[in-house]
Amino acid sequence: MSARYRCGTGERGGQMINDLRCEEVIEKLLDYLDRELDSETEQALANHMETCRACYSRAEFERRLRARINEAGRAAAPDSLRHRVRALVERY
Length: 92
Ligand SMILES: [Zn+2]
Description:
binds zinc ion, rod-shaped, 70% helix, 3 helices, mainly alpha
């Protein structure tokens, strides 16, 4: 998967999408997912993603990634602790 997303200019007859560039959307994406933006900015991002497939998939990707990290974090913590305890027990 390429790390760079380029879009916005040139699409739709050169019309800028909601005056937000993809770089700005990516920059605010984490706050957007955390719902920490003011409603105006949040709406602007949502609008941008409706018309910009690259940013939309980027947001979806981040969202899924975070969900997985949350799950993994919940599942992994007790597990790694158990391993550590077992390692200690086996040493003595
Ligand atoms: Zn975009």
